[in-house]
Specification:
The protein is mainly α and 301 residues long. 71% of the residues lie in helices and 3% in strands.
Length: 301
Amino acid sequence: MAETWLVFGGALLWTAFPIAYYVLLPAFYLPLMTMLFALIFRGIAFEFRFQARLFRRGWDYAFAAGSLLAVLAQGLVLGGFIGGVPVESGMFSGGPFSCSTFLGLLCAVGLVGGYALLGAGWLIWKTDGPTQIFGREVGHAAVILTAASMALVSAWTAFTVPEVAERWFAWPRILPLALMPLAAVVAIVLIWRSLWGSNDGRPFVLTIVLFLLGFGGLAVSLWPYVVPRHATVWSAASDPATLRFVGTGVLIILPIIIAYLGHAYWVFRGKTVLGAGYGSRSAELHVGRRTAASRNELHLS
């Protein structure tokens, strides 16, 4: 599903904001290609791991390595985007490693913690027994790593990017904007307290809230730029006819993707029983699951 969003986002960027596409894509060629190959490798490892008998542990490590590499590449792209890319005469003027900055590394580490926290919340919500306990234990380390990385990224950006510091700390704008980091702190505290709570779904929902607050902070820092400090949403936009065409396509494609995701969540609703798989009797015992969905391979054993 990640590949679907990547293709959808890339096509949307190309058609709606062509200036951003031909400036940003060369700036992030290396991490983006690394992420794509890592996602492909992860999918291969997932399928081979299910079929393997002698080297299943090796495919486990391969799956983990592909996932980690994809997240690190995303972090480098995010850090490079926040810090800004070198532009001369409307074109990218840097090198292939321009995004490999300290800010990019901080964002990469933060995304590892954030995705680990999402995964831990999902395990707490969807499993029981040892797997759920594992999710609760991993969640503690993930919360610490995520909170520390968010604080470091925010501080480093404020000190190194004057435009961002001016956006956040100018008086009296600082008063309403301060509510966003305060809400993030509250969300982190609530996640920490809910990891061993009785509501299994709460850590996952609160982590989504934390991610949305992070996206909100990013929007505050960079709006209205598509290419930070170089091209705004209005100056980089395509002509009105193209935007109308793209908008029609989005209105058609986006509901289809959301419906597919909703169907997938519906099929795999309820708790997952450890060891349940294709043809397994325990697959019929999943809480809240229809019989028609019991033959889906869960790949948990």
